[in-house]
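Supplementary Text 2. Reproducibility record for the structural model of the 719-residue chain.

All settings were left at their defaults, and a single model was retained for analysis rather than an ensemble. We include the record here because the model underlies the residue-level annotations in Supplementary Table 4.
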Amino acid sequence: MSGTDISKKIFIITILIFAVLTTTYAFTYNLQLSNFLGLEQANTLNDVERLQNVVYAEQRYLDKMVQDWSCWDDTYRFIDDRNQEYINVNLQNQTLAGLKVNVMLFVNETGSLVYSKSIDINTEKEKPVPEELIKLVESGKLSTKTEHDVIRGYVLLDENPIYISCHPILTTRYEGPVKGTLIFGRYFDSDLLYYFKESVSSSILMYRADEGMPSDLQERFQNFSEFPDRAIVKPLSEEIIAGYFGLMDISGQPALIMRTDFSRDLYLNSKKTLDNMYFFLILTGLVTGIGVKFALDNFFVSRLIEIDNFVTRVRSEKDLSRRLDLKDNDELYRLSREINGMLNEIELTEHEIKRQEREKKVLLDSLNEIVIFINPEHNLVWANKAALEYMHMDLEKARGIHLKDTPGMDDLLIQHLPLEEIFASGNKESEEFTLEDGNSWFVQATPVIDDNGRIIGVLETFRDITERKEIERLFQEKQVAEIANRTKSEFLANMSHELRTPLNSIIGFSDLLYEQAFGELNEKQLKYAGNISRSGKHLLNLINAILDLSKVEAGKLELEYKDFELTNKLSMIKNLLSPIADRKNITIEIDVDKGLTTVRADESRFVQVMYNLLDNAIKFSYENSPVKIEAKKKGDMVEVTVKDHGIGIKAEDQCKLFKPFSQVDPFLSKSSQGTGLGLSLVKQIVHLHGGYVWFRSVQEEGSTFAFAIPINGYIKSGK
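Retained model, structure tokens:
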């Protein structure tokens, strides 16, 4: 190697470095310029959104005003009687001007116009109602149908666009039926545009959908229907950037496009600064590169050539007695000294490597785990003593055999890990698995990498963990059982003594107060005492339900069997719930087979099951609908069904039934009292009787819940 060759290479490297730096500068320049463009876009978008907020504030104001006026008993009556006093008091020109309402239309429930008025807000003078609005009213497009129906948006009148808001006319309590529609309108005229301009301190332009798409947006959108309602920003020139957003008509289509322009001072100043900075950096890099090239040629190249020639001679002659001698106490001098020391240590290192290989072999052969090393072609390179015994062969015969052909090794044990992926990714992988014989194994594959970062093989270890897995399983089962038993015991004890006892006192004393046992109470005191009693009883029922469920799960709930008249018991439950059913005008029907008289079961638990099912049926039934209870004999079982004509249960919610603390509809859980324990207790109690539960439900048509228990009782012993 000559000095000229190294000098040329240094020159090429210098050129490449300069080229890389120049490219990096150019990339960074474009990136910074892009960041400034993004900053400009974000800043402009914020300004446009300020204009949007001002426009939307005016719309919300009009929406709020029409809602307040439409939900007013006087307005509700005005649709029927059209009394002049309402007009004289509330519909004066000054009133509409103060409300900033240009147009006010009253439409009855049939869609007919009852009263209309239009004024100029600035002069407070009355003017004709636009014919286009009258036609829209007559077409029914501005009429609301339900209590929650609201219509709002822009209408492109010939004179000016107008924003209208339509709200159903209800009572002051927001109750129906809908008496008609109240319509407020505000012209989107030059005065309002001037107000918007002053609010955001920027120029404002407005384009109508019936006049065609503006030329500066035609290249991006073909027509108005494609224009979004969110704000967009578009540079128009080097000096101007514009922001746009759409305003929708009553059908949800774009009616207007608002445009506001801003100067691009931020972008232009930033671009000029970047130009100056990157020109200076490129010039600095060029001068630095020339200086580095000159210094390397004069101070390092000649000495590096001498070191290279020495190393070449040592390698070709294999003469480790040679020594490199360089002057000057610098990095190259220290490099030559390290080369001399390296030559002295090579032989010692070779002997040390051989010794370590022998020690590793002894260590790996002493392991009980199976250890094998395979190359990238999946051929076996080395195996420890345990692996060779497993394969029933020695190392010389095993070396070079393909992994899939190794004798005595189960295919699953060898091929369980994806070796191709391990060689490709270089990631360490491990996994536990169980073979068909029931033994569990832990396998781990570790890639072996050389000094160049290349994967030269994979070291696999296999360990039999059958005994350990069995111990872990037994230990986990023991822990789960102990925790579950302890939790249930603590729950039963705490709930029984800490909650039920004080609740009984609260209920008892509140009942005494309500009965005025200690003296007369006023109306408010009686009401509060009754509320305390009812709330306490509801909470006590909840606690009892939780305790019952806990006892069932703990196997501590015992049934007390006795004979009772089925018809009488069903009638008693009907009488208990009749007051609740009467509130919704629900009739409860009972149909019992003539052959069914006496049933043997736990009477109190039977009442609890029927009470829960009938209470649910009443709770979720429509008003003025029947709830039917049927009891019939099925072999040795009595089957009782409760059928309602109510809201039913969605198919996707039916899986939640009979689960503790689960209700099928979050909305109903708020509007109807319940904890989700009732059906769970029903299922558990019926199962304790040796019976079963089933249900059938169709949304909006109703539900049928049924259970069956043995007529003559169920005894666990089988006697």
